[in-house]
């Protein structure tokens, strides 16, 4: 019993460390944005690596809530972009998917993460969940600053994601067939951020 508690504490501590590291990096990125041009933070990035990092950051909470996470990725070429902005968007998407699954009582709780090459020199990362879904009336304000459907939400997450996607030269799409039907969020990114700005 004691060893199980020790193991759980160790797992929780590692998760907190990952969150702190991630938050420190996000703060650094936001501070850099005030001083630098958009293109100065670009580097060659492997999307599969960023997806795996986002999954690791959120994995502990997903596992505790008994949600299955399934990843499928086509082989993708590296792209020129800002890895920390991509990571911030993906962590937000996966966290929202987890909360959507929590809010909807059902036997199957699943989150799907998919990556593929899109048209017009773009790549796509999709996060789909089997959670509560999005009402049609909420789509109009979904990315508006301060809009939220969560009791304890602040309405900053998706608005921030949309802004970051734009800074990356990409865009976000959201789909849902309504309450009880889950939701899909797609991040489309150019293969070369410098050329898209």
Q: Helix/strand/pairing class, anyone?
A: alpha+beta
Number of helices: 5
- Unreliable parts: none
CATH architecture: 2-Layer Sandwich
CATH topology: Heat Shock Protein 90
Spell the H/E element sequence. HEHEEHEEHEEH
The average pLDDT is 83
Write down how many β-strands occur, each being a DSSP E stretch of 2 or more residues.
Answer: 7
Q: What global shape is seen?
A: globular
Please summarize the sheet with the most strands.
5 strands, mixed
Total discrete domains: 1
Task: Describe the protein.
The protein is of the alpha+beta class and 197 residues long. It has five helices and seven strands. It has a single domain, classed as 2-Layer Sandwich (Heat Shock Protein 90). Strand 4 and strand 5 (122-129) form a beta hairpin. Helix 1 crosses helix 2 (47-64) and helix 2 runs parallel beside helix 3. The protein starts with a helix and ends with a helix.
Which key phrases capture this entry?
197 residues; alpha+beta; Heat Shock Protein 90; five-stranded mixed beta sheet; 44% helix; globular
């Amino acid at each position: 019993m004691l060893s199980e508690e020790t193991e759980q504490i160790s797992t929780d501590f590692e998760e907190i460390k990952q969150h702190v590291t991630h938050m420190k990096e996000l703060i650094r990125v936001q501070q850099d944005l005030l001083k630098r041009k958009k293109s100065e933070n670009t580097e060659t990035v492997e999307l599969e690596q960023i997806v795996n990092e986002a999954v690791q950051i959120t994995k502990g909470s997903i596992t505790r809530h008994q949600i299955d996470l399934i990843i499928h990725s086509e082989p993708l070429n590296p792209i020129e972009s800002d890895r920390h902005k991509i990571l911030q968007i993906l962590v937000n998407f996966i966290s929202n998917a987890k909360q959507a699954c929590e809010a909807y009582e059902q036997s199957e709780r699943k989150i799907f993460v998919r990556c593929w090459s899109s048209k017009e020199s773009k790549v796509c990362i999709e996060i789909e969940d089997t959670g509560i879904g999005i009402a049609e009336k909420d789509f109009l304000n979904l990315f508006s600053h301060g809009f939220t459907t969560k009791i304890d939400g602040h309405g900053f997450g998706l608005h921030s994601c949309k802004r970051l996607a734009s800074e990356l030269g990409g865009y976000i799409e959201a789909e849902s067939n309504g309450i009880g039907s889950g939701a899909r969020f797609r991040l489309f990114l150019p293969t070369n951020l410098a050329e898209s700005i």
